Structures are given as structure tokens and as C-alpha cells.
Automatic annotation (TrEMBL), chain A:
<dbReference type="InterPro" id="IPR006075">
    <property type="entry name" value="Asn/Gln-tRNA_Trfase_suB/E_cat"/>
</dbReference>
<dbReference type="GO" id="GO:0005524">
    <property type="term" value="F:ATP binding"/>
</dbReference>
<dbReference type="InterPro" id="IPR003789">
    <property type="entry name" value="Asn/Gln_tRNA_amidoTrase-B-like"/>
</dbReference>
<dbReference type="InterPro" id="IPR042114">
    <property type="entry name" value="GatB_C_1"/>
</dbReference>
<dbReference type="InterPro" id="IPR023168">
    <property type="entry name" value="GatB_Yqey_C_2"/>
</dbReference>
<keyword id="KW-0436">Ligase</keyword>
<keyword id="KW-0547">Nucleotide-binding</keyword>
Automatic annotation (TrEMBL), chain B:
<dbReference type="InterPro" id="IPR003837">
    <property type="entry name" value="GatC"/>
</dbReference>
<keyword id="KW-0547">Nucleotide-binding</keyword>
<dbReference type="GO" id="GO:0050566">
    <property type="term" value="F:asparaginyl-tRNA synthase (glutamine-hydrolyzing) activity"/>
</dbReference>
<dbReference type="GO" id="GO:0006450">
    <property type="term" value="P:regulation of translational fidelity"/>
</dbReference>
<comment type="similarity">
    <text>Belongs to the GatC family.</text>
</comment>
<protein>
    <recommendedName>
        <fullName>Aspartyl/glutamyl-tRNA(Asn/Gln) amidotransferase subunit C</fullName>
        <ecNumber>6.3.5.-</ecNumber>
    </recommendedName>
</protein>
<comment type="subunit">
    <text>Heterotrimer of A, B and C subunits.</text>
</comment>
UniProtKB/TrEMBL annotation, chain C:
<dbReference type="GO" id="GO:0016740">
    <property type="term" value="F:transferase activity"/>
</dbReference>
<feature type="domain" description="Amidase">
    <location>
        <begin position="48"/>
        <end position="455"/>
    </location>
</feature>
<keyword id="KW-0648">Protein biosynthesis</keyword>
<comment type="function">
    <text>Allows the formation of correctly charged Gln-tRNA(Gln) through the transamidation of misacylated Glu-tRNA(Gln) in organisms which lack glutaminyl-tRNA synthetase. The reaction takes place in the presence of glutamine and ATP through an activated gamma-phospho-Glu-tRNA(Gln).</text>
</comment>
<keyword id="KW-0547">Nucleotide-binding</keyword>
<keyword id="KW-0067">ATP-binding</keyword>
<dbReference type="GO" id="GO:0005524">
    <property type="term" value="F:ATP binding"/>
</dbReference>
Amino acid sequence: MNTYEPVIGLEVHVQLATKSKIFCACSTKFGSEPNANTCPICMGLPGTLPVLNEQALRLAMKVGLALNTTIAKRIKFDRKNYFYPDLPKAYQISQYDMPVCAHGGLTIQPESSGGITKQIGITRAHLEEDAGKLLHEGVKDGSWVDYNRAGIPLLEIVSEPDIRSPEEAYDYLTRLKAVLLYLEVSDCNMEEGSLRCDANVSLRPKGESQFGTKVEIKNLNSFKAVQKALQYEIERQTEALEQGEKIAQETRLWNDMQGKTISMRSKEHAHDYRYFPEPDLVPFTVTEKEIEAVRRALPELPQARKERFVKNFGLSDYDASVLVNDKVLGEYFENCVKEGANAKLACNWIQTDLLGALNERCLSFDQNPITPKHLAGMLALIENNTISGKIGKDVLPLMIDEKKTADQIVKEKNLVQVTDTKLLEDIAERVIAANPNPVEQYKSGKTQAIGFLVGQIMKETKGKANPKIVNEILQKKLS
Amino acid sequence: MSEKFNIDSLADLARIRLKKEEKAKLTNDLSKILGYVEALGQLNLEGIEPTTHVAKLENVFRADEVKPALVREEVLKHSPHREGNFFKVPKVIDQA
Amino acid sequence: MTNPEPLTIQAAARFIQGSSEKARTVAEALKKRVDQLDKSINAYIQFQLPKTFEIKQGPLAGVPISVKDNLCTHGWETTCGSKVLKGFIPPYDATVIRKLKEAGAVIVGKCNMDEFAFGSSNESSAFGPVKNPWDLTRVPGGSSGGSAAAVSSGEAIAALGSDTGGSIRQPASFCSVVGLKPTYGRVSRYGLVAFGSSLDQIGPITKTVEDAALLLQVMAGHDPLDSTSAQEPVPHYTEKLSKQVNGLKIGLAKEHFAAGLDPDVEKAIRQAAKTYQDLGAKIVDISLPHSRFAVHVYYIVATAEASSNLGRYDGVRYGLRVPSSNLTEMYIDTRDQGFGAEAKRRILLGTFVLSAGYYDAYYLRGLKARTFFRRDFEEAFKQVDVILTPTAPTPPFKLGEKTGDPLAMYLSDLYTIPANLAGNPAISIPGGFTNRDLPIGIQLIGKPFDEATLLSTAYAFEQATDFHKKKPRI
């Protein structure tokens, strides 16, 4: 067991968030009627010609810089020739040997790594046009073609085969997605196809430096699917190798329902894409000045934000990591702090209570009705002892359900913490008198018995007593 | 020369069907043409940049603006096989 | 207005004077001539007058213009001379068609052509060969053979063609008309069905140099829809047109007088050089050392691009589909029945030169050798203003003479190809006749974007000779 080492590389296709397609003026809007977002150019009608959307190149450069790649000074496009009904021109305009970006990397830190980071190389990222979509289900005697997606700008980001486990693959994708969302270059919506991933995986005996035969896995519809498919494929290949079988170089499709990969019937036609320079597009040059301008305009990226959260707010590396992996979550946290919340308190409350409460209600973070100001307000009530943390845990869900501020809820439900020492002393005396046994135990050294007495006082005050004051009173009275 | 290319695999790549008599003729033609083209071997091409474009142009862009073309109906109307707003093709089998 | 045969654009515009009624008169006269002649010449795939004549004002107000059938014309079936595009009706106008219409022109016909412009004789058209109006047993040249034959026979006032390796100039030469291939990028290619995208240019085929200048004026200029269209300003070609060639340096390349050149053609070129000398131009001996490799480079580059450009004719979206329950069968049946022999030949050749293992030895080598053509011209144009060459090595040949030997057919473009490989503008004008009255064209090649000098040089010759006035007896 475990004598084989997996070698994994990922190819991610990201839809760049332009308004119009990469080579024509059709809309990129998702969910339009079939073939509504088409024109003679993206349908490949005879005589039509492509013209590059400037924004597509700009967005690609942003990604390239964020992934520490080198932006090419000279860029060209090439034709990749093959026949398929979703490919209107029988060639895809792509980039073969002069991609926009090359030689970069992304730092990963999988949960189980114990905080150890690892660099995953980025081989290249290139611009290309998407193909249309084929529909099979419910079509009698054939397939339907919808060219709305044909010509959607894509950036294909190819990793080095540096990934060694499904977990690393998952972490790479999560972090890559975070970077893309930070850059606002894509909505990264996997259901709508704006982020797609293919995985290459091979096994080799541990210690071996040569790569084994690689298998390409397609039809991966979520990051979890990538992880599961890789897991499955590693097990399948391990078993095969242990039985002395050879791994076939092939493309396999992940079937999420069955939880396994299935060999794609080997195509009848050999692949020879006959790449050659696209004569209809002129070359593109990028100056150092232009690259610098894009670099200067880059927003703060997850890694930098994490380091800042640790440094400025004293968060643990792990907590900071969780907050920054989701751009919106990190921004929410920071806004709470801006509204006066204690950073560590805010971090804990957001990560556990807020996310938990939203989760229970099947709400995404986008649907969170509590503004940073209101969460900061609630946390302030805890900090200034108006309510206890325990009451806070009841207030927070009410803020979501009743869409009210913590102040309103505390007043309406009369949840203000009892800090009146005189009142609490009276209750304490009654509780002591009524519970001779625990009192006796406490006095004989079983100090944990005080918990029962505190609980009784909390019960009497419907949880509103300040637990710290209650503790102090009891200790004094029982000493 | 003719051993250089496999006429069947070229025809397959280009989705061209060759009838028997066509195949013999085209094999012969291609051999002749490629034999003729072979003369380029006489040129010393070392250090010569390939010419892919003669237009001395660079950086030709369009702005990211949407202009609906509204030609769907016109194109579908003349399509060799439409079904609703789709183009219809024989069942595509080598896909998931 | 009974015979449109001698009618130039200039003359037609003068007659029409912006009047829709007179425009109709001209168009109807033209239709009558087409009805009479086209059964024997076959220059048109379609000829159709508009239902109503409400003409736009402009330099071409009301002038009927015919266009090669590879130019997308909104609402007109555009076949490229191929069965595979049967029923393809573009939902848009090519940029040149839009510009012609905006200048007032009335599009009246789509001219026959070699299938997808693959040919030098117009015999590869799916709509039958075009006959040369000067001798109906001979070819009109190709691939814009329909356009040239129509203009020559008076079945058109003027026409548009396209030129990838000589497809405007060689038929112009064979039919004794004027054919101009502008600098690559001078005229937008948007809407021209692509053959060799890095070589294709649209240009006029006319009865006079003046008409060619006028049409170029209307068509030239930057087009945001064509990334390769030049941003150079457009000079005023018609105003600049002059017959003054005094002091002009005209080059004659020694490589152009090698074996294979018909003696009658050589005689015409030498005579043309003398005519220019008499007009005050200076004849300079130059060298274009790579000339003999033109066909080699061309058939690599052009077929590679063509094989890719023709992939889209797959029966899915438009044109012909041969039904099948199997996708691959549908593809290959459609392409089998849709494409003729020459198209298949070029697709296979282009597929081969790009294929894995052969790319470097063929395609890349072709691209590198292409660089020499540009350099040769750059060197030559340091010494001269214009280069004078034969347009074609021979006068028009017999129908069927070269159909069995593709290589012999390809060699008829030997003199025209270099201007496409390098992107330079070139024009063919009537330059004489054989003793059997077969036309001989002379070609002038200019510096990139210097169509003005090219046109003036051509104009000077035309005005000094009578060749353009001679019409075929049909």
C-alpha cells in the first residue's frame, strides 16, 4: 500500500467577465434563449472575421499578474482545427506557442498540511473562444446545437504536474477561485459553466522521477467532484498497477451519481489539431508600462489580505485563512471591525455563529441580512456587558429571522443582562439555602459543584444574569 | 514521395470521402505537387523569420460593447435542419 | 441606350445623372445583353434587376455593378461556385457591398467563379465553366473568370473580383480588361468568403483604368470589422490619376523572361517597355531572385489556410446537408457531394502541410520562404517606382487543356503570385493581342499602398495605346 505517488495537473477554464464575446459584439449573458446571443461572426458564417475584445486581454493580464506569471511582450493567436457540431468554424481560435501568460505559481495550504505551504507551478494561461453547447436530453433522433456560448472569452489556466493529492487539488482550486473572485475577472459560477476543470493524473512508484501514463478526467462539475474523481482514479490506477496492468492513456468521464470514472469511447478519429497562426488576427504587443499599469491596479489578493489580518488584527493563521478564502467574508469581517467590533470576537462570531445560523436556514452568505454595522452593534452589547455571550447566541438568529437590530431585540424581549449586584446577591442567598448538598460538596473541595449553583441562578434570571458577577458573588458567599 | 503521406488519414482528418478512382488520382496529384514543392529545400532558410502576416499592423482591438445582431431567425430560416430555435444534427455519440 | 457594351462607369454615371428612370434604362439594356449572351458565356450564376429603382445619390448613383459570387450580399444566394453553399443566403452585406450600395451602385449579378476561387481557368465551378468572349473554346482565366468575361463581353459595366494568387489579374489579362489587386489590407475582406486569408484581396475588374480608380476609391479604407484592414489614409485616386510618367522608373526583372514564357507575351512586354520609354519613363533592369519559387510557397500557404477555412462547410448551419443518422457520415457525405475535385485536392494538400510531423518541413518552410518575396520587392523598389511583368505566361488556353494536370494549371499564376505573397498592389491592363486576336495582359506591381502611382502608370499606357478599345466579336 501507498507505494505509488499520484502526479496531478489541472486545467482550469475560466470565463472572463466581459460584456461582449471575445471576437464579436454578442452578449455574454447567461440564460438567454437558444441562439439568441449569436451573430454571423460567432456562428462562423462565411466571410466573417474576428476582432479581439480589448477587455478580454486586460482581464487575462490581471490573472497572469496575480498568479505571478510573466506577461508575454508579444502575443499571437492560432487556429486549432477539429470538427465538432458545437464548433462553428471547425477551428477554435486559441493560443498555441505564444500565450498571454507563462511560468507562474500559486501557494496552497491544505487543511491537513498543518500550516505547511506549497507552491504549485502555473505552466501557462492562454486566451481562447468557447464552443457552443450540445443538447441531447429529450431530443428525438439527434442533438440540438445552441451557439450562445460560442465565442465566450475563456482563459485556460494550466498547472504544472506539481499536485500530489486530491486534497491539494481541492485546495489549489479553492485558492485559484478566490484569486479570480478577488480580481473580479470572473463570476466563477460552475453551474453556469463559467469555471470548468479537467484533471490529469498519473501514478509512479514512490521515489521515481519519471512520470507514469496519464489519464485525463473530464466532466468535473464541482471542486468536490474533482477531489472525489481523483481519489477514485488513484485507487483504480493503483489496483491496476498492483495487478501488473498497464494504464491506458485515455480520457475518462467522471460520473458523479455512480461515483466513478468511465472510459470515453476512444474517438474514431485521430487527433491532429494542425495549429497554425490565425491569419485573421494581427499580433499583439504589450509594453512594460502597460503591464505595470495593470499591476498597480490589482486589488489586494487573498495571500496579502491574510497576512494583514494576522498582523493587524492578531488573528491566527487558520482563522485569517478561512476569512480570506471567501472574498466577501473577509470584506464583511473587515467592515465589522471598521464599525467598531473587536476583531477576534468578530472573527469567532462570523465563522461559527453567523455562518452556522445562515447554514441552518439554507442561506448563502450573499443573502446574509445582518449588516456589518448591526453585527458590530450586537458584539458591542456583549462587550459592554449589556447581554451575555449566551444571550448573544439567541439574539443573532433573531436578527436574521426578524431582520431587527440586536438593540431592538434585546429591548423587546427584555434580555438586558442582570448586573444588579444587590438583586443577584438576594437570588444567590435563596439558591444557597435551597441547595444544601451542592453547597456542602463545594465546601468540601469539589469546586466544580459551583456550576450547578450558577446554573440555578441563570435559570431564575432566564439566562440574563452576568455569569462573571454570579461567580464572584457565590465564591464570596461560600468562602 | 507518395509514401510520405497517408491519403486515408488525411481524408479522415479533413472529413473528405474518397472514391476509389479519386483516391488514385489524388494520391498521384499530391505526390507530384509535393515533389514540386520539395524544391524549397534549395533555399537556405536559416535565421529567416516566417511571414504570417503582410499587414504591418499590431494591437487591433474592439471595445467591449454589446451590439445585438438579431439575425437568429434569418440564419435558422435557411438552416439545413432546424428544430425550434436550435440547429439539429445527428445524435452526437462520443460525448457524455 | 441599346448597347451597354462600351459603357464605362463614368459614362453610365454621366448618362444616369442620378435619375432612377435612367438607371433602370441602363440596367434593362444590360439585362437584355445578358439574356442574349450568357447562354454561351456563362459569366453569371445569378443576374437579377431590383424590383424598384430608387437609387441613392453618390459617385456610383444608379450604376449597375456585378460581383463575384464569393462576396456576401444580403439576401442573395452566395455560392462561391460550390454546391456546398447551395441555399446559403447571407444575412449581411460584405463591407465592400455596403460601400458600393452607399455610393449609389445597384448590385445586379453574382458572377461565376472557380469553386472557392480554386483555379485559374474557371473550369472548377459547380455552375459550369465560363467561356472566354474572345474565343468561346478558350478559358476566361480564373478564378474571377465570370467577372472578367462579363466586363469584357459587355454583360457588366464593371465587376468586383477577388485575388489570392492572381484571380483578378490573370482573368483580366485573358479577357483584355483592367484588373486591380490592391495592397493587402487596403480593402476590407469582411464578407469575402475566405480562401487564403493572408493573401486574399478584393478588387475591381473594369473596362478602363479610370473606372478601376473610381471603384477602388469607393471600396478602400479601414474597416473595424477586419483586423487586417489598413489604417493608412486613402488618397484621392481619381483626382490623382495622371498620364504623366516622365522620369518614372519602371523595373523589368530578368527572372521574368525565363523558359515557359510565350513568345507573343514576351514581345508584348518588351513593346510595353518601349511604349513607356517613349513616354519618358526609364526602364531599369532589376532582379527578383526568388521568383521561381512563387508557386511552391503559394501552394503551401494558400492551401494550408484554405483547408482550415473550408472546415466550416460541414452541413450543420447553412448550405448543403446530406442527411444521415450518423454525424461523421453526415460530415463526409456533405463534403463529398458539396466539394469538387479541385477543392478536395487543395483541402487534402493543406491538411497535409499542417499535419503533425510535416508542419516544419512544409508549412513553416513556406512561411520562411515567403519572407524572401517581401525582401525581393523591398530591394527592387529601392531602384524603381513600378515593376512591369507579364500577367500570365501565355494567352488564354483551351478549355480542358490543363484540367488533367493541376501543376501546369498552377504555373499559370507564376507572375501574379508574388504580389499576394508580399502584399503589394498590382494591376493587369490590356497589353496587346496575338496574331489570332487572343488578349495579352501586362502587369504592373507597385509599392505597398501606392495604388496612386500604379494607377497613373497604367493610365498612361492605356491612353497611349488602343488595346482597351478593342472588343471581342461575339
